[in-house]
What does this fold into?
Amino acid sequence: MVLNLIFLGAPGAGKGTVAQKAVEHYGVVQISTGDLFRAKAKEDSEEGKRIKGLLEQGKYVDDETTVKLLKERLSKDDVHNGFVLDGFPRTLAQAEELDVLLAGLEKKLSLVVNIDVTEEKVVERICNRLTCPVCKRIYNKISVGMIPQVEGKCDVDGSILTQREDDKEEVVRSRFKTYVEKTLPLIEFYEKKGLLVSFDGNPPMEESVRRAFEIIDKKVLKE
It folds into this structure.
């Protein structure tokens, strides 16, 4: 069965971590628009430089660019068993664009999972978040189950963990404010489509992962 998922939630809600675990558990592909942006930002091109500037300021990349990058990724062969879409859509306009994009690719969403968290929990998590620059695995200095076995190093490949520039507190709070203004209407959008299920993401991350799997199994795989 093809499993196409979206995880909604503020920056730091755990979307990336839960998506990563879902990829491992269900054997689907994780597609993170954040990763697509950061990869493009490393390119020595006008578009790459523009995206890099937006990321450093904590601003969102424009819809046209986002949809173009996403279409390229969704068109690859490795998504035939399904995908976990992380970080998109963020606005109603993007959700509508995604509907058109998926229809054109003859794909459809299976479920939209909303992870609900407070602003202070978001700040706490992100400001302590570390990422492996090689395998992209996410760690956290204070969250049980996400602390690296060797301080500052990736458990998988031993790479030195880094903090992203957009994980500073002032940038995080700016991103949360933008999320509230732009992204929350998506909850109503997907509720009307009968695709949305929400759960409390403030407890430890391992509980969020367990709850997400429970929802997916019940709502999609066991239907």
About this structure: Strands lie at 3-8, 29-32, 82-86, 111-116, 129-131, 138-140, 196-200. Residues 205-221 form the longest helix (17 residues). The chain has a mean pLDDT of 89. The two ends are 11 Å apart (CA to CA).
